[in-house]
C-alpha cells in the first residue's frame, strides 16, 4: 500500500463529495470545495491518497492566528489504521508552521471515535451547539492550543 498526504487538487473533489456523502450522509458540496480551492486564500485542504485514490481528507481555514477544521474523514475501509492520527498530526503541524495559536472544530456529541482522537491530541471542550445537526443532535466545539515554535 502506498500513501501520501498532499494538497487537494481539482480532480479529487468528486471523490471527496462521494466520500462525504457515504460517511456523513451529506457533503460540503462540489461548488464550495471548488471555490475554496480556487478562490479562498485562507482554505487549506489536504488529501490522504492511498494507492492513487482518495482515502480521506481534512479541510482547514487558517486566518491569522486561528484555524478551524471544516471537514475531516477517513474512508470506512481505512479507519482504525492510524490514518486519522496521521492526517490530524499533519494539520496541526501545518497550523504550527503558520503560527496558529488555536485550532477549533465541531464534533457530534455521540461521535466516540472522533472524540477519542481529539482527546488524544489535547483538544478541550469549549461549548455546545444545541440541535446543530440536521437530525437534531448537538455539536461540541473543541479547541486546541498550539505551541508556536519561535
Ligand atoms: C474520526 C476518524 C477521522 C478517525 O480516523 P481513523 O483513521 O479511524 O483514526 P485512527 O486509526 O488514527 O485512530 C484514532 C484513535 O481513535 C480510536 N478509534 C478508532 N475507531 C474508533 C471507534 N469506532 N470507537 C472508539 N475509538 C476509535 C483508535 O483506537 C485510535 O485511538 P488509539 O490511538 O488510542 O488506539 C474516522 O473514524 C472517521 O472518518 N470517522 C467518520 C467521520 C468523522 O467522524 N469525522 C470527524 C468529524 S468531526
Q: Strand arrangement, largest sheet?
A: 1-2-3-4-5-7-6
- CATH-wise, what's the superfamily? Gcn5-related N-acetyltransferase (GNAT)
| Secondary structure category | alpha+beta
Q: What coarse outline follows from CA principal-axis ratios? A: globular
Q: Any idea what the radius of gyration is?
A: 15 Å
Order of helices and strands: EHHEEEHEHEE
The residue fraction in helices comes out at: 25-40%
Per CATH, the architecture is 3-Layer(aba) Sandwich
Summarize this structure as a short list of keywords or feature phrases:
seven-stranded mixed sheet; 4 helices; 150 residues; Aminopeptidase; binds coenzyme A; 31% helix; alpha+beta
Task: Explain what you see.
- The protein is α+β, with helices and mostly antiparallel strands and 150 residues long.
- The protein has a single domain, classed as 3-Layer(aba) Sandwich (Aminopeptidase), CATH 3.40.630.30.
- Helix content is 31%, strand content 35%.
- The protein is built from four helices and seven strands, in the order E-H-H-E-E-E-H-E-H-E-E.
- It has a seven-stranded mixed β-sheet with strand order 1-2-3-4-5-7-6, sandwiched between helices.
- Helix 3 links the parallel strand 4 and strand 5.
- The radius of gyration is 15 Å and the shape is globular.
- The mean pLDDT is 96.
- The site of coenzyme A has 20 residues, from strand 4, helix 3, strand 5 and helix 4.
